[in-house]
Amino acid sequence: MNNIILIEAIEAISEGFSLYDAEDKLIVCNSRYKELFASHADALVPGTSFETILRTATERGLINDAEGRRDAWIEERLARHHAPRETHVQRRSDGRWIHVSERKLASGGVVAIYADITEQIVAKNVIEKQKVHLDAALENISHGICMFDATQRLIVCNKRYADLYGLTNEETKPGTTLRAILEHRIASGQAPDDHRSYIDDRINEVSANKPYQTTNKLRDGRYVFVKHRPMADGGWVATHEDVTELKQHEAELAAARDAADEANRTKSSFLANMSHELRTPLNAIIGYSEILQEDAADKDDKESIDDLRKIESAGRHLLGLINNILDLSKIEAGKMDVFIEKVDIQALIKEVLSIVKPLADKSENAIEVICPAGIGSFRSDQTKVKQCLLNLMSNANKFTSKGTLTLTVAREDISRVCFRVSDTGVGMTKEQLGRLFQAFSQADVSTTKRFGGTGLGLAITKHFCNMLGGDVTVESTPGTGSTFIIKLPDQGVVAPAAVDSPAPVPAAAADGRATVLVVDDDPSVRSLLARTLEKEGYRVISAANGVEALALAREHRPQAITLDVMMPKLDGWGALKQLKADAELREIPVIMVTVLNERGMAIPLGAADFVTKPVDRQRLTAILREHCVNPSSASILVVEDNLPTREVLCRSLESMGYAAYAAVNGRDGLDWLANHPTPSLILLDLMMPEMDGFEFLRELRKQPAFVDVPVIVVTAKELTVEDVRMLSGQTDGIIAKDQAYLTELAAAVRGRLAQQPAHAAERVIN
Amino acid sequence: MAKILLVEDNEMNRDMLSRRLVRNGYEVSIAMDGQQGVDMALSERPDLILMDMSLPVIDGWEATRRVRANDATRQIPVIALTAHAMAGDREKAMEAGCDDYDTKPVEITRLLGKIAALLKPMAA
C-alpha cells in the first residue's frame, strides 16, 4: 500500500491518531493528535519515545491528572499503554476531557486514539444538574407525582408518591412497570379495591391516552385525588393528592349547611306557628264580641253594645299590631314571599276606601280620589299593595282631623304606576322625615303619645315597595300636611290591544307555546277568551260551532279545548262525545263552559272540567294548569344567590307562563345543568359566592351542549367597560337591577325566547 | 233552607261561624278534620262547603282535591278559609279547586255575600 494514501487516510480521521512501534517510538501521528497536544506538538517527532512525550507533556503541565504526582502518573500511564485493556479519560489542564483508546498490535506496537469528549462531558454535567434540580423540585411538591414512559414503565416519581402508597425505594425504581406498582399497592392495601379488574381497568384507562382526573377512596379510608395527563411522547404524568382532610371539610360544610337549613326551617315553622297561636285567640275575642253585639242588638241592649264594641276594637287593634310585628319578622327573616298577579287598580282603590272611609268619618276627614277611569290593571302583589295603601291612608287619617285626605293614582309611563296619598294634617320636620321609615321609630316620642301607633306600618310599607321593585318617598311641610308617594313597576309586559280581526288559520306554534282551541258561537265571548288566554301566554285558535271545532282539533291538535255547551249545529255535548270517540283527539282535555245546572253531565261524558260564564280567568288558568297545559314549554334557569331576588324572579317568570328553576350560585347552576334537560334561557346574577357569574359563563361556554344557551345577565354590580366587553360576546343582554328592572327583564326574556329556534317546541307538554 | 258543611278544626271558630250562619238562615253541619270533611261531603251532599285550609288528618287543599275528584261531590261549591290572606295560600286554594276564598278573621257580611253568590244559581 502506498504510504501517501495511508497518511492521507490517517489525516482524515477526526480523532487524534498515533502509532508507536515495538520499541514504543512514535512512527506516525495525525494533525488532530498534534492539535490535542497543541502547546508541545514540537515534541511529537517520529522516533521520539512515548515516555519522552509523556514527560514533556507533564513537565509543561498539560495533564491535570498528573499535577503533583508526575512520576506516579507517568508510571500508571505507561502501564496502561503497554497493556491496554479499557479506555480511559484524561483531564487536561485547559479543562478539556480527552478520551483515550489504545490497542496493542500483533507487531508489538501500540495504536493510540484520542478523542475530545469535552462537549459530551459538559452535556452530561448539564443533564446531571438538571436531574438534581428536577429531583429537588419533585421532592418539594406536596403532591405525589409520577411519570411513566410509553411502555408504561416508571421514569421518575417523588418520595411523596411512594409514601402515599406505602411503596419502598425498590418498588419505585425507575423502569418498574405500572402493573408491578399496582400489584404492590394492592398487596399493601393502598388501592381502592383488590379485584384483579382494578389493575386491568387502570391500565386500560391509561392506555386510552386521555387526560382525566378522579378521586379514589383507598381501603384505609383515605381519599386521593389523581390527575392524569398524557405526554406527547406516549408516556404520562400523574399527580396524586391526599384530599382526605378536604373531604372532611366538605362533609363538615355540608353538615353545617344542613344544620343551617334545618334552623331556617325551624324559624319558618316558628313564625308560622307563632302567627297561628297569636291570631287564634284574638280572632275569638273579636268574633265573639261581634256575635254578642248582634245578640245585644236583638235585645236592644245599647249599653252592652257599647262595651262590646270597645272589646272588639281593642281586639282588632291588637291584631293589627301583631300582624305588623309578624310581617316585619318575616321580612327580616327573608321569608316574605312576593306573589305577582293582575291587579285591577280601580277595584283595589274601592276596597281600600271602603275600609278607610269609616275611620275618616270618625275624624271628620273628607276623602278625595283622583283616578282616571281607564287606568286598567297592572301586575304586582295585590295583597301587599293594598296593605301599603291602607297603611298610608290610615296614617294620613291619624295625623289629620277635620281635613282632607287625597288619593291620586296615575300611570307614570307604560310600565309604572304611581300612588300619592296626601293629607292636610300636622306635617313633619326634616328631622322627623329622616327617621320615618325605620321600624320602631315614629317621628318622635311625643307623636306616639299624641297619635298612638308603633311606627311599624311604614317600615313594612317601605319593605314591600322595595320587594315589588319600587319605592315609597315622602314630602312634607310642618303645619300644612304630608304627601307619601308610592311608585311601583308593572311586572309584566302588557300586550298591546289585540286587533279584533277574525282568527286567521294559524301556523304551527314554533315558539313552543301551548295551543288552546276556544269553541263558542258568540264572537264576543270567543274574542274575550282569546285575549284572556293570550295574555296568559297561550296561543289561541277558535271555532264557532261543534263541527268547526272537530275539524280544527284534528288539524291543529291543541293542548286543550274550551267548549261552550249551547251552540247551533252540533251542541257542546255532541261535540264532546265526538271528541272523546276520536282516538286521536280523545286525550285532549276538554273544559266545558257551562251553567251550573249541567255540572253533573260534564264529567261522566268525559270533560276534564268545567267553568261557568262569565269565565273567571283565575279558575280557567288553574284548571288548564291542573291538566298539565302550561302556556309555554320554555324553561328558564335562574342563577342567583340572594333568596328574595331569586323568588321574585321565579315568580315573575312563572306568572309569565314559563317553568322556572333556581340555582343558588354558579357551581350549583352547573350541577343543575348536568342533571336536567337544557333550559331555554338562563338568567344569571354576577356576584355570587363559590362561583360567580363570570366564571359560570366561562365554564358554561366550554361545554358544547351549552355553547348556544341564551343567557341574560341580571346584576346590581356596577359594570366596568372591561366587564361589559367580556360579557357582551357571551350573553344576550345585561339588565341592571335598578328600580323598574322586572319590566325590562320580562320584555328581554320574551324577546329572546321568541327568537328561539323550533327545538323548544319539541318538548313534550304533559 | 240551604245546607252548609263547615270544615273547621278550631272549636271557637266553629262555634262563632256556625252560630252566625244559623242566624242568617242556613242549616249547618260540622266536620272537624279534613277526612271527616270529605266523608261528610259525600254523605250529606251539602249545598256549599266552607273549608278551613289548615286541618288535621288531611289539610284543606287535599280535602278539596278529593271532593273535586269524586263525581258525586264534584259540583259542590267550596269556599276556602285562609289565614291572613297570604297570597300564596289563595292561589293554592284555587288550584286545589276552590270556587272562592275568604280570609280569617272572617268578616261576616263579606263571607255571606260570597256564599250567596255561589248558591244563587241553585235557586234558578
What report would you give on this structure?
The complex is a heterodimer of chains A (766) and B (124). Chain A is 44% helix and 20% strand. Chain A is of the alpha/beta class and 766 residues long. In chain A, the strands form six sheets. In chain A, strands 2-1-5-4-3 form a five-stranded antiparallel sheet. Mean pLDDT of chain A is 83; it is low at 493-510 and 757-766. Chain B is α/β, with parallel strands linked by helices. In chain B, 48% of the residues lie in helices and 21% in strands. The mean pLDDT of chain B is 87. Chain A binds chain B through residues 275-276, 279-280, 282-284, 286-288, 290-291, 294, 319, 323, 337, 339, 341, 381-384, 595-597, 599-600, 603-604, 612, 618-619, 622, 625-626, and chain B through 10, 12-13, 16-17, 19-20, 23, 54, 71, 74-75, 83-88, 91, 94-95, 97, 99, 104-106, 108, 121-122, 124.
Arrangement of strands in the largest sheet of chain B: 2-1-3-4-5
Judging from the principal axes of the Cα atoms, what is the shape of chain B? globular
Q: Describe the largest sheet of chain A.
A: 5 strands, antiparallel
| Number of distinct helices of chain A | 25
Largest interface: A-B, 35 and 30 residues
Number of alpha- plus pi-helical segments of chain B: 5
Summarize the structure.
With 766 residues, chain A is of the alpha/beta class. Helix content of chain A is 44%, strand content 20%.
